[in-house]
Amino acid sequence: MKMMDKFTDSLTQSVEYIVDKNRQIAQMNRLKAIIHKETETLDNAFIALGQKYLSELEGTPSKDIDVAQLCETIKTSKLRLRKARARYEYIARYGVPRAGVKIDGCSSKSGSSKVDNEEDQDITIAYADPTADSSTDK
User: Looking at the predicted structure, is the pLDDT value of residue 96 above 70?
Assistant: First the structure.
């Protein structure tokens, strides 16, 4: 009987390890996608800002480009990018954090309540709650 218990424990630990690794890889892939998207957003915003600046220097009429909106987009994207990179590094080193764990390097410096609310949320798009009941009795 003892042998069967040891085998069952070993099998359970192996399955838990595989599930945890799968969760870690999935979250890292989502973070890579977020980093890529935010980098593209920053590139596009800087290109639009450069086009606006060039048209101003040349004295030609520029398109309807709202510089304040571009600056806000750049600020938001930089914040999300910094947060995604910090979370990616944390997960790569320590694994998926438990719910409610704050990761250093992700806090905002501004006093905006909108930004503060975003800070409390998880940066990843989809997140399966490991504490949720996953039984599907039908």
Answer: yes
Dist CA 116 CA 62 (whole Å): 35
- For residue 44, pLDDT over 60 is answered with yes
- pLDDT mean across residues, the chain: 79
User: How far does Cα 93 stand from its chain's mean position?
Assistant: 16
Is residue 128 within 8 Å of 33, Cβ to Cβ? no
The per-residue pLDDT for range 61-85, each reduced to its tens digit, is: 777 778 899 999 999 999 999 999 9
Distances (CA, A) of 8 to 4, 19, 21: 6, 16, 20
* Cα four-point dihedral sign 131, 97, 101, 128: negative
SS3 label, residue 3: helix
On the 0-12 / 13-18 / 19+ scale of CB atoms within 10 A, 55 is: middle
Give the type of residue at 83: K
